[in-house]
Amino acid sequence: MNIRKWSILVFSSFLIFIGQTGAQILIHGNAADVYDAKAIFVNPAVIPYQGSQFLCGMKVYHLGLLRDDQFGFKNTFLGYSNPNAMGFGFGLAGQFFSSPILNETKFDVSLSKCFMNIFSVGISLRTLMIGYNRENFQLVHEDDPVFRDGTSKTVLGIGGGLACIPFPNLVLGVGAQYLNQPDISLVGDKIKQQPDVHFGIVYSLGNFRTMASVGFDNDRQLKTNGFVETFSEELGYLRVGLRGVQFAVEGLLHVWSMVSLNYSYDYPMFSAQGISQGSHMMGLVMQFDRLPRLRSIKTPPIPRKLLLEYDPEPYIPMPRYEVLASTLKLDIVEKKLRRTLEEDLPPEVLSRLSWFDIVKLDSSISTERAVPFNKQIVSRSASRLSLRGTFSKEYHEGIGLVSDLVQKEPKLRVDIVTPMSAMERAKQVRSQVVFEENRDKEIPVSTPQFPTPEDRLFFHQPTGLASIPERDSLIVLSIDSARFEIIPIYTRESPQRWRMVIEDDKTNRFKVISGVKDPPKRLSWDWKNDDGELIPPGVYTCYLEWMDQERQIHRSQTSELFVKKFQRTIHLRISHKRPKVEGKPNEINMFLKK
């Protein structure tokens, strides 16, 4: 084995036995140990490097200062981590520490993201609940101002972390909690929860690992841990070392498929610390990505007379390029709008119409949504109400049209969308729409929910247009551009020139992107040919061609690209008169603006 690597391992192990101070109460994993599920308690950035897993367990303590309760100090913990939740690492972690005088609960929600497989950044939000058992405080008066506002408090803490793997056998990590320093005082004297900071390092060499960590808790005392470990992918790991001023032994055993058992025992090295019989930690770990061990198959021996002497020629791989496409499917949505304005509409009425009234095409890829916002149902049941106020003849005719359609089409869906200021009139309109014979038909009254202030403005603000465009059209792409990754394999010299070819199913070339010498590692294309025409629907083939220094033409493996096109045509008629409904509508939305 390399002497230099052994020197690094011995030096890292030496770090274990120096600077050991402080006590270990709650569960604190190493901020750089990506193989330990407990690392999420101190560093959310390790989640992208871990597998999907769940852990739960308990740690029990015996303190020499409290002889009447053998296990008065307990710490229950659980955690869940998913390294790929919609492209992010997601984690949940919780701890509950109980003692005769103090109870402490921590619950963390964390998100993290890995970049270039080298480093990962994570953030977390922690809920901290601290409670005191007042009856166990001696000489405390019932009017003591310390407990005037209660015996517990809940605060929120913000944390984060960073994990880095600069080399395959070296992991560095740092995690911090309570960066916002929340106030944890019961009486409001602004006692701040100091940040918890933990640094960790893990170095691997074969089946051996050495790890060390340094941390600061609320008491601002230095806490150091250090272990030497031997591990096996099939069995688990066994580590020994120091956790603060306690000698610690910990092991993880894979017992069946994805189930593992974790156990740790800490024994104090100095009786002055008050811990006389140590602590036990027992945990259950479920690694969902771990595959069960395959049954071994013995190969029968081959008779000597069947063995043939064969001296193969050395294999020289062929230099080539491989092309990977980020997407193999493109959806094109073409939306067309035709507006018909009746002659009875004066210009001052048209200028009061909003963009929503005259329909403005949006960039949504969907062609099924009836309105460009969400609706929150406020009322479902109908009651018999009369329409109060003075309304035009056209207003009553519009309500009558919807009422006739509801009576003729039992499956017709009708929604009334209104602001809260017109809620009472919306219920009156619903009562006019529903007849006595179909009183049980449900017509919900909803309020519009706008995701942005621009959408709210789009719904309410008048256009102020003297004339409204007769036609509009919009083309929406499911992805803005095609991206190709070009990977060189066994290339020792640059080609003379290259070209990226996209051709249809009849081998007609739609687009050619060319260059000289080495092709770029990444290539982007806007779905258009040299004349600026958008790619039509169909099945296309993509590949890379290049000419080597001997003027030989080579081609990469091909990839298929599928292009689909959807068209939606909308005819909008704006009139004061009672509209004519053609065909059988399946949905009607009635909008009250004020």
Structure write-up:
- The protein has helices spanning 3-14, 347-351, 355-358, 393-408, 423-433, 453-460; strands at 53-63, 73-85, 88-98, 102-115, 119-132, 152-167, 170-177, 196-205, 208-216, 222-232, 236-243, 246-256, 259-268, 275-287, 320-325, 329-341, 374-379, 413-417, 445-449, 471-477, 482-489, 497-504, 509-516, 522-525, 538-547, 553-555, 559-574, 587-591.
- A 14-stranded antiparallel beta barrel has the order 1-2-3-4-5-6-7-8-9-10-11-12-13-14.
- The chain contains six helices and 28 strands.
- It is flat and about 95 Å long.
- The chain has 594 residues and is mainly β.
- The longest helix is centred in the C-terminal third of the chain and has 16 residues, at 393-408.
- It folds into three domains: 3-134 and 159-287, Outer membrane protein transport protein (OMPP1/FadL/TodX) (Porin, Beta Barrel); 320-331 and 477-567, Immunoglobulin-like; 345-468 and 575-591, no CATH class.
